[in-house]
């Protein structure tokens, strides 16, 4: 198959796939439990389906066609037929998004049947009778309606039970009742409210009659390491993120027979794309149905490359990074997702369990420091034993930052650290520092070694970090919280020969009194997962 040609044409494709955006406010009305670090364990999983939007729609179709013996149906928003691009950037641009080049449906059918005959994909006969849901909006100028129509036609050629929804005025987006965008727009976060429940419709077509949705908070949102499922052990090498997610309802965790939906975000919707985070996971309106219909939802994550190959974190549907097998058996992203599916079904050899070390902070070196917002007049805080470690602006007008120390020499020598995160416990506070100013963030700076001397000192308030903002702690107002996973740079900064210090502080000084105390009665913990080469 021809390879993509030209940096300028690749850039054009990536710009066309999704409009340029900046991260926006969280999805209106969406609810989800906070992610909990974990692994993909085996459940009693029966039928498996795929669904996606834009590049994720193309990937959902690739999974269904390549592994029709596993996937019993699929749903796609704003995407075209199986391997529409055929490894050509020109075709992807002009036939699979725009309509300036003919699609040639007969040629796509021949290609699919030939691959089946060669064993490069599962037998196409298995597509007969499979439910397929196809959604296209009248205002989608990114993947135009004739391209979406061709997807419905392609599955129909193999006897699938196709339901096509083309009555909506949607732009280029996943359509959901939780979408913050108006129906016709094409803009971040590509979650549009069109006054219809398209997720309910697609699930009804794939699964049969479904119960009304629940709250979407009755299960667990597991954050897992995608590297464990990637060929070669590196998700980044495939333009996938280190982190993936799976929503597991309580019924499935308790042993009920459940179905599995693989839900694939579009370009610029991945967790690792410019702070987009879990907005697709929370706003797709799938977890709500999962709670009431014994449905596990797997959310694999693509990630942007630092080069022009895939800067917007799209799924591979045109053959980037030299993967000629991207749409069939052996495709690197396809096989990574299949490994996740097999893990959830308890099939095959699961990846080796990572080693884990839970490090408690060193009480004698922990504490907090306070200063004016500009860092002047810094002093060591004195209320740790009474209330805990202070973060935010106190009633005295001073801005507090907490410092915690860990003996990271306890990580086994020679082990490759794959993930790490902090766990905190709230012990008091006043006001909402995350809302002062709106969107404020509690960040974790990482220092390889100590900020000054390892004993707390006033200068720790403004001392340089090895990695600033290496993790983030979500808003919480009672109980405990788990930070995001440390960034790759922060993992590299862990001092394997001694102490690593971390400083917790808000990105902006709260305008008024707004603070929290953490970990009065127990130390902060740093959980580190690693792999050994032996």
SS field, number of helical segments: 12
In the predicted model, the low-confidence regions spanning at least 5 consecutive residues are 1-29
Overall form: elongated
Tell me the major beta sheet: 12 strands, antiparallel
Query: Quick check: average pLDDT?
Result: 91
Strand content: 25-35%
Overall helicity: 10-25%
What's the β-strand tally?
24
Distance from N terminus to C terminus (CA atoms, Å) equals 40 Å
Number of domains: 2
Q: Based on helices, strands and strand pairing, what is the structural class?
A: alpha/beta
Radius of gyration: 24 Å
Description of the structure:
Residues 1-30 form the signal peptide. Keywords: Hydrolase, Signal. This is Poly (3-hydroxybutyrate) depolymerase. InterPro entries: AB_hydrolase_fold, Esterase_phb, Plant_Biomass_Hydrol_Est. With 534 residues, the protein is an alpha/beta fold. The protein has 2 domains: 7-27 and 35-345, no CATH class; 356-531, Jelly Rolls, CATH 2.60.120. It has 12 helices and 24 strands. It has helices at residues 7-17, 55-66, 89-94, 105-118, 145-156, 198-207, 250-253, 279-283, 287-292, 332-345, 384-387, 488-493; strands spanning 36-37, 45-53, 71-77, 131-135, 161-165, 174-175, 181-182, 191-193, 220-225, 243-248, 258-264, 295-299, 355-360, 367-371, 379-380, 389-393, 399-407, 416-430, 442-448, 467-473, 480-482, 499-506, 514-518, 525-531. Strands 13, 14, 15, 16, 17, 18, 19, 20, 21, 22, 23 and 24 form a 12-stranded antiparallel β-sheet that branches. Strands 1-9-10-12-11-2-3-4-5 form a 9-stranded mixed β-sheet, with helices on both faces. A hairpin with a 5-residue loop joins strand 16 and strand 17 (399-407). The protein is elongated and about 75 Å long. The protein starts with 6 loop residues before the first helix and ends with a strand.
